[in-house]
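Dear Dr. V.,

Thank you for agreeing to look over these. As mentioned in my earlier message, I'm a first-year student in the group and I'm still getting used to reading structure tokens, so any feedback on how I've presented them would be very welcome. I ran two proteins. I've put each sequence directly above its structure. The first is here:
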Amino acid sequence: MTHAHSHPNAESQWLAHSLSLLLAAPHITLPDEGSEEARLGPGPVDVFTIRFNEMFMPEARGFVGGHAVDREELRKTLVGLQRRWNAAEGSCVGSEVHPTHVTEFHPTMAARMEFTPMYMYPREKETIMAEASGEEVGGVERIDCLMLEGDEYLFRQEA
């Protein structure tokens, strides 16, 4: 059952679209610069990290399941979510922004993700709420803080 939200703002629609693109982007673990694999020349491109860097400010931070995280922890959380994201059986739509319990966070955009996670049994639909604040930099919206609420198992990198 998909919940329609009457009037998400343009920023919320941007957040939903951007999260959908990010979760669909291939994530590749690149070798360390000094390793043998790195000396073999150019290899695959990590589109996930490129999109993450385009979406998030350099000093971005977040809250995952009520816990404060830095930018790298936020990236790893989204990689974990990507491993379970099932675009074929899910949706990510703009949502209305709600006040949060975190006093230093004032979201301006929100998205609701509903999907049946991959690699989880029994297969039941899950919901994740994403709320973010950001600013326009050089004509492009960028996130400075992202809050994710949902089953913490969905955010883990390991299976």
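The second protein is here, in the same arrangement:
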Amino acid sequence: MFVIANNRCGLVSRSQQTTVKTPNKDRLYIAFYSKPTATLDSFHTALLITPKRPNPKKVQTWRYHVRENARNSGDYHRWEYEGGRIGNGDPERRLVALVHLCKMASGVSNVELSVLFQDVEISSRWDDGGDRDWITRAIELLTNRRVIGEMALSLQMIWSNGYRFAGLVEGNEERVPTCDIYGRMRKSEVRREWRRLSQS
């Protein structure tokens, strides 16, 4: 059973941030990854749930998204759902930037979420944007099921702010550049796995 979220995401005042102590809850992000080939959308997008400061040497992050179907022919759709644990790095694509959406309520199971997200509609179209459409529907599902609170902006605006932010960063910083839902830079809590391994 999911824990009901009582607070709206993105609506914590500065006074609340400085006076209210919150436990080290997991974070929900929209992740922007580089694409191996050029398309109309410059980035591949996914949902990430991480601890407050994920250890880059451990597999602590959960990623939920639709990826390109490797079969990519015949009667198969272009996109297929994938959810599971990953490290901070990805051998197939580079994590460019993150949008911090909110903190997850205590007690939410990532395994249960991976099952819940199987109910999210996957685009049957062959054009770009199926990954973007999927995360929008996935966040709407979390809100409708009261797993998270309502967002202070439309999901389309949040995605656009993140897309713009990702286009401005270099993508090779030690910590993954992170913004809030308004596209404003915030302190990153996610280190890049590849940078850590290269120093060992």
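From my reading of the second output: The first strand starts at residue 27 and ends at 34. Residues 1-20, 194-200 have pLDDT under 50 and may be disordered. Does that match how you would interpret it?

Kind regards,
E.
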